[in-house]
């Protein structure tokens, strides 16, 4: 096996092993704590989805959470049992109201809806770059949220969508996240991924050697949208009920902060960032109730958000390239063996 | 029926236009505050709304003071907070990429909001009312159009502040230095412009504008909450980029334009469709960005690399 392949396998194994370990831990902790672990795993799926576009292209997007939102709502609406759906969501389009899907088809549907929407939105938007691109994707988030909140024909509107089967346990979360990671990894090592990463480093130079920057961005945006929709479906099946506010600004900022916290330019960074920030969040939430870490630690109510915001800001100021420095996972280097002669 | 108050086109009448100008003027002030800091630091300060929020809380907690002292406290707190923000956050970030800067200011925004929440909930409820300025919320009738006093105040403050700013930037030496730094920071430094001085000036001015906006917004919505001015800041940030963030005046026009457009569209929409106002405004934003990515009010084309 060549040296390159070995590096690639290690790069993929790092995030995979980490996710599996978190998954195993999820099954070992108390039911109350399980939700924290599941939440962390689903965050990984979302952040990796965002990374596929933002990390590989270097173009900031605030819009990926809108694909999480449509994924969550399409999957949620389609899995509510028929009898309760027809009673509660009477205003839905008949095709949505009178049909229902199983768990796995609903996950696939969410990915498809997210991907198609991202493709449609990306067609015009991917011609933009820099701040204009960031603001335009933000406008997409605002429009998606506005329509989902107000239009009763496609969803619950401003009310809570509930009675969704809670199928995202440890197994579904881990498998879902692993699928996301493997797809993201395969993409970034593919021809398309490499062309896009080249354009991230120097858009003009990449264009000069024949990379169609807009088209490469569009593919990544679409793939990222599909993965985001899928992550949204995992999310909604973890929560069991959801409002449009839960997949809006706060989640956008939190997931972007996770990505930057971990290191924007690597898959490893996306995974580590999501797990680290979720971990901090859970730890402080627990500490508000009182937590035993050798001694009894109790922090006042409401300090979780202050500490979380403070730590994220401090981290970003002191180490702006993230925990991983934007590098992929690698094993600690062994002392170099100097090849004396070619064999 | 008064002719001026009658509908002209859809629901648009003189009343709607005046309100839209008032909103535009407020957003223009915020746009200047954001644009000034962007000019010298290349940093979009997402936490700008939290400066306004801090000012609004100061007004709320000093409601029992004499009005002048309360307003003075508001300016003092906001300017001090923006200087602290510059020293602790902006300065270490100077060499970083725009993404890192923007996401860091998100974190700061989040941080300040959660601190505000912590302070606010001590009395058991969320939200503090500002009672000292309610008299500005009463309307005066001019030629059949009801104009709230605060709308007049907003327009006067905006025109006055922009006029003073134009004088400061256009007619003084420190203004010249600031403009030079905004045009090309590195070259300006090489030619002897004191970086910390011009940045300090921009930050203080932008803080003072945030305090003025806090005054206007607390009249319009007297209950101050931790997310006060957050939505407005987002809309203004969008407006600033749509207008053209590279120049202060295009950014300001962008801020005014998005406020004015929001007001007009709101008036023109049938009442049962006003819930879709954000969708319409942001669809317009996308349209403008696609047609003029460098900015609605920017003349000429952007550079080749930027168009990739």
Task: Describe the protein.
The complex is a heterodimer of chains A (343) and B (308). Chain A has helices spanning 3-28, 31-57, 64-79, 82-88, 94-97, 103-125, 130-150, 170-189, 191-201, 203-208, 213-239, 249-262, 267-289, 303-318, and strands at residues 291-293, 295-297. With 343 residues, chain A is mainly α. The radius of gyration of chain A is 21 Å and the shape is globular. The mean pLDDT of chain A is 87. Chain B has 12 helices and 4 strands. Chain B has helices at 14-41, 48-61, 67-90, 98-120, 149-171, 173-183, 185-190, 195-220, 230-243, 248-268, 277-291, 304-307; strands at residues 128-129, 139-142, 145-148, 223-224. Residues 1-8 and 303-308 of chain B have low confidence and may be disordered. At the A-B interface, α7, α10, α12 and α14 of A face α4, α9, α11 and α12 of B.
What oligomerization state is this entry in? heterodimer
Outline the biggest β-sheet of chain A. 2 strands, antiparallel
- H-E string of chain B: HHHHEEEHHHHEHHHH
Distance between the termini of chain B: 56 Å
Distance between the termini of chain A: 15 Å
| Shape label of chain A | globular
Q: What's the pLDDT, averaged over the residues of chain A? A: 87
Helix and strand content put the structural class of chain A at mainly alpha
């Amino acid at each position: 096996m060549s040296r390159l392949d070995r590096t690639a396998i290690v790069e993929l194994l790092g995030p995979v092993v980490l996710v599996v370990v978190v998954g195993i831990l999820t099954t070992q902790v108390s039911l109350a704590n399980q939700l924290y672990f599941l939440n962390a795993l689903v965050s990984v799926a979302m952040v990796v989805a965002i990374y596929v576009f933002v990390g590989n292209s270097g173009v900031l997007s605030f819009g990926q959470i809108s694909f999480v939102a449509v994924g969550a709502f399409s999957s949620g609406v389609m899995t509510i049992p028929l009898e309760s759906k027809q009673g509660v969501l009477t205003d839905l389009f008949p095709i949505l109201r009178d049909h229902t899907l199983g768990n796995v088809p609903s996950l696939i549907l969410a990915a498809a809806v997210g991907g198609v929407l991202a493709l449609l939105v990306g067609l015009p938007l991917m011609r933009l770059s820099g701040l204009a691109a960031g603001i335009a994707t933000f406008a997409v988030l605002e429009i998606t949220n506005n329509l989902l909140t107000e239009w009763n024909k496609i969803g619950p509107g401003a009310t809570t969508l509930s009675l969704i089967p809670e199928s995202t346990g440890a197994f579904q979360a881990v498998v879902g996240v692993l699928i996301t990671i493997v797809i993201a990894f395969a993409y970034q090592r593919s021809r398309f991924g490499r062309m896009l990463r080249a354009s991230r480093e120097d858009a003009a130079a990449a264009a000069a050697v024949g990379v169609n920057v807009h088209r490469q961005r569009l593919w990544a945006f679409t793939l990222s949208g599909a993965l985001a929709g899928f992550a949204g479906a995992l999310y909604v099946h973890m929560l069991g009920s959801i409002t449009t506010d839960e997949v809006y600004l706060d989640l956008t900022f939190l997931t972007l902060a996770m990505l930057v916290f971990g290191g924007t330019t690597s898959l490893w960074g996306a995974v580590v960032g999501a797990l680290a920030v979720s971990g901090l969040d859970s730890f402080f939430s627990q500490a508000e109730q009182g937590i035993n870490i050798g001694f009894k630690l109790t922090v006042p109510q409401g300090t979780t958000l202050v500490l979380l915001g403070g730590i994220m800001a401090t981290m970003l100021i002191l180490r702006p390239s993230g925990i991983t420095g934007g590098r992929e996972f690698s094993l600690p280097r062994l002392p170099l063996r100097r090849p004396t002669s070619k064999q | 029926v008064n002719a001026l108050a009658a509908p002209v086109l859809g629901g648009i009448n003189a009343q709607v236009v005046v309100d839209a100008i008032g909103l535009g003027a407020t957003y223009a002030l915020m746009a200047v505050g954001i644009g000034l800091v962007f000019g010298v630091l290349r940093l979009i300060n997402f936490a700008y709304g939290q400066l306004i929020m801090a000012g609004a809380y100061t007004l709320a907690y000093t409601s029992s003071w004499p009005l002048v002292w309360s307003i003075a406290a508001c300016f003092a707190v906001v300017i001090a907070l923006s200087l602290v923000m510059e020293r602790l956050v902006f300065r270490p970030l100077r060499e970083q990429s725009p993404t890192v800067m923007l996401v860091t200011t998100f974190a700061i925004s989040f941080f300040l909001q959660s601190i505000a929440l912590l302070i606010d909930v001590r009395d058991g409820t969320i939200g503090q009312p500002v009672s000292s300025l309610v008299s500005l919320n009463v309307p005066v009738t001019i030629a059949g159009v009801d104009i709230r006093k605060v709308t007049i105040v907003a327009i006067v403050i905006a025109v006055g502040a922009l006029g003073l700013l134009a004088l400061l930037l256009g007619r003084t030496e420190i203004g010249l230095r600031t403009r030079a730094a905004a045009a090309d920071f590195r070259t300006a430094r090489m030619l002897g412009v004191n970086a910390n001085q011009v940045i300090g000036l921009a930050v203080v001015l932008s803080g003072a504008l945030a305090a003025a906006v806090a005054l206007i917004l607390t009249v319009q919505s007297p209950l101050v909450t931790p997310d006060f001015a957050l939505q407005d800041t987002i809309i203004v940030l969008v407006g600033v980029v749509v207008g053209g963030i590279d120049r202060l005046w295009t950014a300001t026009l962008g801020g005014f334009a998005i406020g004015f457009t929001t007001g007009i569209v709101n008036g023109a929409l049938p009442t049962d469709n006003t819930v879709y106002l954000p969708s319409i405004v942001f669809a317009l934003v996308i349209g403008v960005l696609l047609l003029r990515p460098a900015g609605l009010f920017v003349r000429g084309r952007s550079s080749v690399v930027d168009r990739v």
